[in-house]
Amino acid sequence: MTRLTIGMMLMFFVSACSQNSGSEVSEEKSDSTAEVTAGERNEHGQILADYMKIKNALVGSDAEKAATAAGRLAKADEAGAEITGSAAKIAENADLEYQREEFFKLSGFMYEHVKNSENQGETVYWQHCPMAFDNSGANWLSMESDIRNPYFGDAMLTCGMVEEEL
After folding, report:
1. Mean pLDDT value of segment 68-75
2. Where are the beta strands (DSSP E) in 9-143?
3. Overall domain count for the chain
4. How confident is the model over 125-156, as pLDDT tens digits?
5. Do the domain assignments include residue 22?
6. Domain assignment of residue 85, given as a range
7. pTM score, two decimals?
8. Per residue in 31-40, is it b (16+ CB within 10 Å) or e — as a string?
């Protein structure tokens, strides 16, 4: 029975992660509308908007845009030392794989930030890709339930699932 359950879970993860849209990833994702809306309202919204810009740049495998967005987040004193420090590391390194590794850490800090911040009436999704980092898995935040994987970009654009709505 346990083998059957494990086998079915493995098949689910493989099928979820093998979906590839085959289309090019553009910088402008539908998260961008939510980013502007949230970013205009308050400091929390701006921090979240800057994070989403980093995520979208990584989805598009654009290290330069990720560094630029991370540079803005690194200057947000109200974000706290963990968030700004992690963002600074992304901003200072042009290597896409390094940026994705640091984004994984940043995502954990941002998860705590969002959980501990006053909700502004928008749903934020905590998403997970089980295949990231040699099948160790990795999470990120998104303003949409649709999966756009920042750890693989267009190679495995839709690999992942929503784990939690915040």
Report:
1. 97
2. 125-129, 138-142
3. 1
4. 999 999 999 999 999 999 999 999 999 988 99
5. no
6. 28-165
7. 0.77
8. bbebbeebbe
